[in-house]
Amino acid sequence: MTCLPAHTEKKLGLVIDLDTCVGCQACVTACKEWNTGGHMAPLTDIDPYGGHVDGVWFNRVHTYEHMTEMGGRTVNFPRSCLHCEQPACVTVCPTGASYKRASDGIVLVDEDKCIGCKLCSWACPYGAREFDTDVGVMKKCTLCVDRIYNDNLAEEDRVPACVAACPTSARHFGDLGDPASAISQLVEARGGVELMPELGYKPTNRYLPPRARTERAARVDAPALEPIRAEGGFLGWIDRMLSN
Predict the structure, then answer these.
(1) Which end of the chain has a smaller Cβ tally under 10 Å, C or N?
(2) Torsional sign, CA 152, 156, 160, 166
(3) Burial 27-64 (b: 16+ CB within 10 A, else e)
């Protein structure tokens, strides 16, 4: 089994604002595009244009309908590796392929040591591990280590691809081990939470909960639709066209 570092110099991670994430999948696409040629490349695509699409994705977005006292709302939930402080995926690894870096806390996989036993994927309660069937090894989010330390990029671009691509700035990157960092201050101000803390794995990433709706929010009720009449009317014409 693989040991963890006694401490890490930094705790690099993501903060995701569930209040402003619109589920556009830009982060998913940017992640796939960057990493399919990056540190963990290639990321396998299986039947990409067929009826049984599958493959390796480091970042996925799930969408849920949530009922509140003010009515229903849609919540988009991005999911990727949380780079836990106590990652079970590392301690369960029999070869040392999964490891946590002491320098920045990022959890990575050494493909040359991975034997594809999948113990890490069974140990991870967040479903963050991705098994690449083409090469028989486990892969996962790297926090874009080949971007954030890349001196060939402008300093403002040295962030994970998912953060750079987010059109609503719902994703933030930084050192969550530094209480004075901007990202830690954001978590403090918005009451950021870790995912399933009761498990004790201490995820580094944080989620900012959706803000509660208030009566001050603009409310525009949609007018009632015109009854569909088979004999005519615009909506009747639309209905006939769609029924053909």
Answers:
(1) C
(2) negative
(3) bbebbbebbbebbbeebbeeeeeeeeeebbbbbbbeee
Closest CA to 14 of 126, 116, 115: 126
Residue 225 burial by CB count (10 A; 0-12/13-18/19+): exposed, middle or buried?
Answer: exposed
Residue 159's SS3 state is coil
Judged against a pLDDT cut of 90, whether residue 227 lies above it is answered with no
pLDDT tens digits, residue range 133-149? Answer: 999 999 999 999 999 99
Q: Position 216: which residue type? A: R
- At 72 the pLDDT is 82
Number of H helices, E strands in the chain: 7, 11
Cα separation, 244 vs 242, in Å, equals: 6
98, 115, 116, 97: which is closest to 107 by C-alpha?
98
186: enclosing H helix or E strand = helix 182-190
Q: What is the pLDDT of residues 173-221, one digit of tens each?
A: 999 999 999 999 999 999 999 999 999 999 999 999 988 777 666 666 6
Q: Tell me the CA distances in angstroms from 11 to 26, 84, 214, one per residue in order.
A: 25, 9, 35
Q: Are 193 and 19 in contact (CB under 8 A)?
A: no
CB-neighbour burial class of residue 141 (10 A; exposed 0-12, middle 13-18, buried 19+): buried
Q: Which of 13-17, 39-43, 220-224 is the least confident region?
A: 220-224
User: For the whole model, what pTM was predicted?
Assistant: 0.84
